[in-house]
Structure formats: structure tokens, C-alpha cells
Amino acid sequence: MLCGAVASPNRGADAHALFLAQYNAPSTPEAVRSRLLQSLACAKDATLLAATIAAALNPSLIHPDDKVPLLQRVVTVNAAGRGAVFDAACDAVAVAEPPTLTPQEFAAVVGTLAGFWYTDEEADALQAFVGTHETLLAPVRETLDGHLGTVATNGVWMETRGKPLVEWMLGEARSSSSQQEAN
After folding, report:
1. What is the pLDDT of residues 16-29, one digit of tens each?
2. CA-CA distance, 127 to 136, in Å (whole number)?
3. Is residue 16 within 8 Å of residue 52, measured between CB atoms?
4. Alpha carbon distance 66, 69 (integer Å)
5. Whole-model pTM?
6. Do residues 12 and 6 lie in contact, with contact meaning Cβ atoms separated by under 8 Å?
7. pLDDT tier at 179, thresholds 50, 70, 90
8. Measured between alpha carbons, how far is 169 from 112 in angstroms, rounded to an integer?
9. Confidence at residue 183, expressed as pLDDT on a 0 to 100 scale
10. What's the CA gap between 165 and 99, in Å, rounded?
């Protein structure tokens, strides 16, 4: 229900503002804070989604212990936010002064992204970033290499099994639609 409120095209901004305020209210119980935090990731509006990602990296808005879980939640529930999370995480670890993500936190966010990524473009973007920031990311290089391997494995799976599966499902949908029209 909370997620749906933030995703609402009509009232999402109001829900987002209310939930962020309630998340930060000292009287809000921890269990409620967790649900409010998770709901912020459901924003469908690009402006609200950007605000959620920015809030995750702002310790005056989101508790530092909650920033990585919030970014990971955006990745898992909001496909539209994955690229924005990657871009923000890259900036947070390599550009921000002071950095708002540690290399370990960056690797955790990338690990979640890797579970959803499968294209050469996504792998290339990660590889290019890691290559450019080799010294900074040295402590987590092995982890990031593993995430790159996951993206490559996902790509192979999509090519060999994913595309045929999608084609089969589309064929079944067309067949079902044709049968309904015939009746």
C-alpha cells in the first residue's frame, strides 16, 4: 500500500514527502521506518526517483546505515531507476567530496545491479568505470570482477534461454488472443 502511494501519478509526490518526513521523525518506530524507506524506492515519476536516489546519499535525509539498502531497493523494484542508481553510485564513490559511498558500499550496490544487468553496454559501462578508478576500487576489485562475471553469465542466459522464452510467451499470448477473438 505504501509503495503504491509513492508510485501514484496523482499523489506520489505528496506520499513521498510525507513518508520521508515520517522516516525522519524521532517518534517513528523502527519497523515503520523500514517500510517507509522501502516505499520511497517505488517512485515512478523521474523527479521523485531522482530525489529518492539523492536522498539515499544525503546523510541529513537518510541515515547512513540505510543508504545502501535504499539504493538496492530502487534497483530491485524499479527498473527505470537502475541506470540512475549506477550513475549516482559512480559519482558518490569517485566524484563527491567527501565521497558519500565507500568502495565496499559501491560494490554492494553494483552487486545488486549485476543481478539485473545482462547487456554488453551495462558490462562495458561497469568495466570502463572500474578501469578508470582502478586505484580507488582496488580493495573491492575482486568483488567487482565477480559482478562483471555475473553480468556476462546473465547475458549468455538471456541469449540462449531468455529470448526463446520471451518469444514463446509472446506466441502464446497471440494464440490466446486469436482464440478469444474467434469465440
Report:
1. 999 999 999 999 99
2. 14
3. yes
4. 5
5. 0.88
6. yes
7. confident
8. 27
9. 64
10. 42
